[in-house]
Amino acid sequence: MSFDFDPNAFLSQETTAASERRAPVPAQDYVATIKEIKADRWQSKDKLDPETGELKSGPLFIFTLELDLPEDVREKCKIKQLTLTDRLMLDVAPGGGALDFSPGKNNRLRIYREATNLNAAGAPFSPGMLVGKLIKVRVTHEVYQETVQERPGAISKVA
Fold first, then answer.
1. E strands, the chain, where?
2. Residue 1: Cβ-neighbour burial (10 angstroms; 0-12, 13-18, 19+)
3. What is the pLDDT of residues 115-136, one digit of tens each?
4. How far apart are CA 11 and CA 94, in angstroms?
5. What is the pTM of this model?
6. pLDDT tens digit string along 46-87?
7. For the stretch 70-99, what's the b/e string if a residue is b when 16 or more beta carbons lie within 10 angstroms of its beta carbon?
8. In sequence order, which residues have a C-beta less than 8 Å from that of residue 114 and are 6 or more positions away?
9. If phi over 0 gives left and psi between -120 and 50 gives alpha, with beta otherwise, what is residue 63?
10. How far is CA 72 from CA 76, 78, 110, in A?
């Protein structure tokens, strides 16, 4: 379906219908596809780096996860699909030029690698290899300003 986009038409469009909040999807496991991974930076609002005196910051990956919702959930929640975002704050190797893959570092990334069978010693890996892979995501609920919001929780292999 194609249409000519006239932003002024949208600005002047009227309705008498109230906007409604949809029900949150149930907190349970869903199959999801890793649709995209973006690299970015995080920065603390108030914590200072003891060495530099500047606000703490570092790299992060932003995972876009598209959930495959069962028909009953789509009908109940009045939603065709759900996309969640997972933000992974990353540990950097000494010297700051690469991700730290030593034991105990970048655990959330390790979990994604294990869920997609990309965590084998000696096998090449780059984070971009995760895009397009299927995983199981446990949707959790977080209350923010009295509103329930869906968040990605546990990540595991698809059975």
1. 29-48, 55-68, 82-89, 134-144, 147-156
2. exposed
3. 999 999 999 999 999 999 999 9
4. 52
5. 0.86
6. 898 888 888 888 899 999 999 999 999 999 999 999 999 999
7. eeebeeebeeeebebebebebbeeeeeeeb
8. 157
9. beta
10. 6, 10, 32
